[in-house]
Write a structure and sequence with these properties.
alpha/beta, 177 residues, 12% strand, Protein-Tyrosine Phosphatase, Chain A, five-stranded mixed sheet
């Protein structure tokens, strides 16, 4: 966890808040704050076709009904940004949703929470590990290089556990973690 924290905070041990409402952190995958998810016209301008709300019913009250007049597909994750919250049950479900979306070469996915800082970043990092074969350090660096993020220590521990499981199970069994 300390190594991941150093990747996030850099040499000056600074936690920076996101400077933009959304950022493309991997091709066609965006992390953003809750407000951008409520701006349907802006999402359509960006070409967003899928939304993952990592604060579903907890601070950001959108849902499939919110996007009913659009073609945007929705996944809600009721995650609490707390060290003790178990995010692991959502890793595979969210990674599968993102992967299914990106099978369409024109699709773009927004993963958001309230601030686009901890929960959403954790889910995207897990996707990069599960579906792109990245180690946890590479996945954290990939996201952090493109957006100011800082998953809480509990989420970082869970990503380390996922990393260990992926290493011990081998690439053929990634889906069963």
């Amino acid at each position: 966890v300390q190594e991941l924290r150093r990747i996030i905070t850099g040499p000056f041990d600074l936690v920076l808040m996101p400077s933009r409402s959304h950022d493309e952190v991997f091709p066609r995958i965006y992390i953003g704050e809750g407000d951008i998810a409520k701006k349907v016209a802006r999402l359509q301008e960006l070409g967003i076709t899928h939304v993952v709300n990592a604060a579903h019913n907890i601070g950001v009250f959108t849902g499939p009904h919110f996007y009913r007049d659009t073609a945007i597909q929705y996944l809600g994750v009721e995650a609490v940004d707390h060290d003790g919250f178990d995010m692991m049950p959502y890793f595979i479900q969210t990674a599968d949703f993102i992967e299914d979306a990106l099978r369409d070469s024109t699709a773009k996915v927004l993963v958001h929470c309230l601030e686009g800082f901890s929960r959403s970043a954790t889910l995207v990092i897990a996707y990069l590990m599960l579906k792109q074969g990245m180690m946890v350090q590479e996945a954290v660096k990939t996201v952090r290089d493109r957006r100011e993020v800082c998953p809480n220590d509990g989420f970082l521990k869970q990503l380390c556990i996922l990393n260990d499981k992926l290493l011990s199970s081998g690439s053929e069994q990634k889906q069963t973690v």
